[in-house]
Write a structure and sequence with these properties.
The chain is of the alpha/beta class. Strands 3-2-1-4-5 form a 5-stranded mixed beta sheet. It is built from 5 helices and 5 strands; from the N terminus they run βββαβαβααα. It is globular. A hairpin with a 4-residue loop joins strand 1 and strand 2. It has a single domain, classed as Ribonuclease H-like superfamily/Ribonuclease H (Nucleotidyltransferase, domain 5, 2-Layer Sandwich).
């Protein structure tokens, strides 16, 4: 497998997290933008767009993996999350990088072998895979890293089949 740098993104209306994983040697980096203190929603969209561009510019990203929007009973929240994801997609496409979308279940299945794993279980497994502790970081960061790792796993499996 050629060296791939995957940017995993966990879009959120309170925190949007970025996990950057080198699939070959399992090194990782992360970043996140806290949005809860930004009152104007348009400013939140701009903050996410700008941070996404910044992360892409700072790392040699091969591909982007992003979690699909989870549609809940609260339609207003789902729509806002979709707008945040739209800002991310615009920034990624501006950089001409391929984007792959995964459901939460697909990510959990790839990392833990169990599609209904909890966030805490996922974080524990990510820490074991990368031999690190992510204690002082928001769970969104371990989620973003797990999205990148899941894509690495799918890419590795696909390359072995082909």
């Amino acid at each position: 497998m050629k060296n791939l740098i995957i940017l995993g993104i966990d879009p959120g209306s309170k925190t949007t997290a970025f996990g950057i994983v080198d699939c070959l040697n399992k090194t990782f980096y992360y970043d996140f933008v806290r949005l809860q203190n930004i009152k104007n929603f348009d400013d939140k969209i701009h903050a996410v767009f700008t941070k996404t561009q910044e992360v892409i510019e700072n790392y040699d990203i091969s591909e982007v993996a992003i979690e699909d929007v989870f549609y809940s009973v609260n339609i207003k929240s789902s729509l806002k999350l979709s707008e945040i994801k739209g800002a991310i997609l615009a920034a990624v496409k501006n950089a001409h990088i391929n984007i792959v979308h995964y459901s939460t279940r697909e990510i959990k299945q790839a990392i833990s072998g169990y599609g209904a794993a909890s966030k805490a279980q996922l974080k524990f497994i990510v820490e074991k895979i990368l031999n690190t502790k992510l204690d002082k970081l928001p769970l969104d960061v371990s989620d973003a890293i797990s999205i990148a790792l899941a894509h690495c796993s799918y890419k590795h499996t696909t390359s072995r089949i082909n």
